[in-house]
Amino acid sequence: MKEAMAQKQEKRPTKQKQKQALKKLKDKLEAQQLAVKEKKLPVLVLLEGWGASGKGDLLRSIISCIDPRFFSVEVMETAPTEEEKRMPFMYRYMKALPEGGEFAFLEAGWMTQLLREKLALGMEEDLYQERLQSVRIFERQLEDNGYLVLKFFLSIGEQKQKARLKKMEENPETAWRASRFDRWQNKNYSRYEKASKDFMESTHTPSCPWYQIDGEKRKKAQFQVLSILTQAIDKRLAQGAGGAPVLENDLPMIPPGPLREVELDKRIGKKEYKEKLRALQERLGELHNILYLRKIPVVILYEGWDASGKGGNIKRVAKALDPRGYRVIPIASPRPWEKNRYYLWRFWVRLQRSGHVTIFDRSWYGRVMVERIEGFCSEKDWRRAYREINEFERELVNWGAIVLKFWLQIDSKTQLERFEERQRDPRKQWKITEEDWRNRKKWSAYEGAVDQMLEKTSTAYAPWHLIPSVDKKYARIETLERIIQAVEKRLKQAERR
User: Fold this and answer.
1) Per-residue pLDDT averaged across 478-488, rounded?
2) CB contact set of 495 (below 8 Å; sequence gap of 6+)
3) Taking all residues of the chain, what is their mean pLDDT, rounded to a whole number?
4) Mapping DSSP to helix (H, G, I), strand (E, B) and coil, where does residue 179 land?
């Protein structure tokens, strides 16, 4: 009896110590959030695992330590909405990214979605592997750009899961928490277990590892997750944002040649221009209807020298389109909430759903031009961006988008004439700024940056089109013709399938 009492007394302090240790970790996270805010460290926490493994309880325990103004929670257990299905695969996760200095918690995410679509809905293996690669790229890009990404998988035994689901279903107040997919998981336990292990092996990296947590013991799970989270935050804050190493492109390029080789003397007569413009706009309008019906997205971006005619060119393209099915996105300096996120975020969230046309007036290429030349990002940042941009455009193509990239080329003399004309004309003075004049002084530096951009980002699936724009009318016709050619080519490919 005395021995039994002694054992019982020994267990009490152990339990008390565990409680104290858990509180200590919560206090630590509460203190860390201030340093996270000060250092503008964005923290993304993914909670994956089995249904009824305690993800919700774990999440509540973690966020109880953080100021509600500093975190967001996204529940991704449900299948994508009809609207989300018409966007690129990683769109809903990219959209959920936190700003620097904040936390974002995802209850389930890309793992749950992919395994559901593969195992329960019969996704083809080729598409599954393509999306696995999208996940790997997504995670690497975030880590490379200063995000702390933590991935947890909560495990639970088959019988324990079954018992918890049954208990939930018997209570009218909690029955809604036992989803149809949770029940499917339990009935296909062995199959899902193998697929989840394979998924974690395929997406486990030294910089973004998976942590498997025993979900049957709730307090222990909380302790483990909080330990890993607080240690990871300490380590990242100590390291600082040094910037990831630059990985070279591994894609075949088809560069269009340097800017100096563009033939700028191409012209078109006024009568021919009017006739062609009317016919091309009519044809593009017809094609837009077909694109909408077949849900084929189109992404068009315009880059070029200041005063090269981008606005007028976009206006002629947009006039041919149904206003309900396109959007023109003018890109200027990032706003504070955009600057505090991964630089591609602001372009991801502006994409229009499939069947629509998104036109960017300037684009993500600012990273390797303006930001590079003006010193708004580090050399590692802009050198790494070539690969990141190619991967982003590959994601758009995998989504099914027609991606068209136009560089409108003029010479320095033409730019000067147009600048002076804008200054003389009260209706155009708003188009000319001191920044335009400053940029003009750096013509040679920008020209070198653009040539390198063309060399490193003109891929087979998203090549650059260099458009002579000394004659604006010629440039408009050339652009419309290339858009129509690309759309007709895609439609013919679809018919052959």
Assistant:
1) 98
2) none
3) 93
4) coil
